[in-house]
Design a protein that fits this description.
Blueprint lengths: L9 H7 L3 H14 L3 H9 L5 H4 L5 H10 L2 H10 L10 H23 L38 H12 L1 H9 L4 H21 L5 H8 L5 H4 L3
Helix pairs in contact: 5-7, 6-7
Length: 224
């Protein structure tokens, strides 16, 4: 069965992100104080800050929050420009909230990498909806709702493990790739698994794949 997570109203999410505004003010003030020429010039001569300059001085996390602060029309334009326009049947709110979650997940993994923390076993409990960009069909143990078949506890656990693990990140990255880039990306990941398999002495590579939520034919499903 398709899984859709409660999203409430998008305006509530925007309201929760208003803390980004004072952060942006502080960032711009600090950059101006540090004599960042581009910041100082635009603020003093034009009284506003172009987005392309702002992107150079704020964190990826703030970029994520900035998206949630935009008007719906702007958010939809951003979604379309990123090539993330989903099926016409999906509500606008659902598309917006899942794009926001994509940015949030990317921000979390970016911070993990920046702080040299353990990456491969990280579990991210930021849910993407099954119907968004067919994410549910790219997870293990997908069930056709018309068959009225239920997953057992083991199948549910495996599906959840993949949903919350690094596979979700791989899925997100794949959304920004064409078929050629995706094939190269998949090949590079598989090569890393092969290298690791040759170096392991105490446990099989299958145990690592299970812990990562990638103990299924992910390389085929991510292409589908």
């Amino acid at each position: 069965m398709f899984k859709t997570f409660p999203i409430g109203r998008v305006h509530r999410l925007r309201a929760g992100s208003t803390r980004t505004v004072p952060v942006l003010h502080r960032t711009l003030g600090q950059q101006r104080k540090n004599k960042n020429d581009s910041i100082k010039s635009y603020l003093e001569q034009h009284g506003y800050m172009p987005m392309w300059i702002l992107m150079n001085v704020i964190t990826f996390g703030n970029v994520s929050h900035l998206f949630t602060l935009q008007k719906e029309s702007v958010q939809l334009e951003i979604i379309e420009s990123l090539g993330l326009k989903s099926q016409p049947s999906i509500q606008k709110d659902l598309s917006i909230i899942n794009t926001s979650r994509i940015l949030q997940i990317l921000s979390i993994y970016r911070n993990i990498c920046a702080h040299n923390e353990r990456f491969y076993l990280t579990k991210i409990k930021v849910p993407l909806d099954d119907i968004y960009m067919n994410f549910g069909k790219k997870l293990p143990n997908d069930v056709d709702v018309t068959l009225r078949r239920r997953l057992n506890s083991s199948q549910k656990k495996k599906r959840l493990n993949s949903r919350q693990g690094i596979y979700a990140l791989i899925f997100i990255i794949s959304l920004f790739m064409d078929s050629k880039e995706l094939n190269i990306f998949i090949k590079e990941i598989k090569n890393e698994f092969d290298k690791l398999s040759q170096e392991l002495n105490t446990i099989p590579i299958s145990e690592i794949e299970r812990s990562m939520g990638m103990n299924f034919d992910w390389y085929e499903m991510i292409r589908s």
